[in-house]
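Structure (tokenized):
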């Protein structure tokens, strides 16, 4: 698939996590944001949707609470009502992300029926709101040095592939594709993890959702990964990284917070955006650019800046501009790292 023409710009989207920063809500903590959304889901979603429209971003990826499927149902009563509210603002759902914290554990061998049922429930919602992508991840690694050690080996990946096939088949019956996100410190993080899992899974049932930041945080080359697996990329998360994670993090409930200092807004880190844009232009997911900004204090400004970086990269690819030339443009416009 080729990049949309200059007259058919890709749809820009973002993850609802972009709006979780307490400063955006005039609050002190993320827990307070969750409490606000639980008490007034309609008010929560109204502000998120208005901010999306203000930023010029038309697609959203649902995720864990408060921007999850259950919250949308509490606010709007049904998937069809949610869809109508989005369409009234020129918005739409792109995908939904399955967070490990609110889904059956893939590491438990007897959980397959619950895993499939949970995925089918999400897929039915996605189909009703007009989306066709369910984004999942593989379980997290354990802290290095933990005893007994946990190895991400061929046997482990074969078990994950078996589950992925069952889930991919189940959601396909709803017209939904299953794609896997390359989360930091998960068992689908390093380039080798991605290559192994992709080799063990059927491309008709299992797709890839590479995250440029997380791959870079693992010391990998996001562009190389995207090029190797271009034909299986249904969606990508466009996100920047400061540098690879250079310490062994404790993998517990705080690991996502520990990773935050290594992440940054688009155009201010180490990701090769022209190379990434070129690789993305050759994927089935080329028509959507999902800008991911975890908990932005000013999400509208951050999204506008991210979209600008993506647009420059895409324009350079269309014009045949080299990566080096675009980096010069970034420095001139104050977007360099």
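Design, position by position:
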């Amino acid at each position: 698939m080729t990049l949309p023409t200059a007259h058919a710009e890709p749809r820009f989207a973002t993850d609802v996590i972009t709006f979780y920063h307490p400063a955006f809500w005039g609050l002190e903590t993320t827990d307070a944001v969750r409490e606000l959304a639980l008490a007034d889901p309609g008010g929560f979603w109204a502000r998120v949707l208005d901010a999306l429209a203000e930023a010029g971003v038309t697609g959203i990826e649902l995720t864990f609470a408060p921007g999850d499927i259950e919250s949308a149902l509490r606010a709007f009563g049904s998937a069809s009502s949610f869809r109508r509210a989005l369409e009234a603002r020129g918005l739409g759902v792109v995908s939904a992300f399955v967070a490990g914290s609110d889904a059956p554990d893939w590491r438990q061998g007897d959980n397959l029926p619950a895993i499939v049922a949970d995925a089918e429930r999400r897929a039915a919602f996605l189909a009703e709101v007009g989306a066709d992508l369910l984004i999942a991840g593989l379980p997290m690694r354990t802290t290095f040095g933990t005893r007994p050690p946990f190895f991400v080996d061929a046997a482990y990946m074969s078990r994950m592939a078996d589950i992925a096939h069952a889930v991919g088949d189940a959601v396909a019956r709803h017209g939904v594709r299953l794609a896997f996100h390359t989360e930091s410190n998960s068992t689908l993080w390093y380039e080798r993890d991605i290559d192994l899992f992709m080799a063990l899974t059927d491309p008709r049932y299992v797709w890839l959702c590479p995250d440029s930041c997380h791959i870079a945080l693992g010391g990998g080359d996001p562009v190389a990964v995207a090029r190797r697996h271009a034909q299986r990329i249904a969606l990508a998360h466009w996100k920047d990284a400061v540098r690879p994670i250079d310490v062994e993090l404790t993998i517990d409930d705080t690991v996502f917070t520990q990773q935050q200092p290594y992440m940054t807004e688009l155009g201010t880190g180490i990701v090769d955006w022209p190379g990434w844009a070129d690789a993305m232009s050759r994927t089935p997911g080329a028509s959507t650019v999902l800008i991911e900004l975890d908990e932005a204090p000013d999400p509208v400004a951050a999204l506008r800046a991210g979209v600008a970086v993506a647009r420059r990269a895409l324009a350079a690819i269309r014009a045949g501009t080299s990566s080096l030339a675009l980096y010069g443009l970034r420095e001139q416009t104050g977007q360099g790292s």
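Reviewer-requested clarification: The first helix runs from residue 22 to 25. Residues 1-7, 322-337 have pLDDT under 50 and may be disordered.
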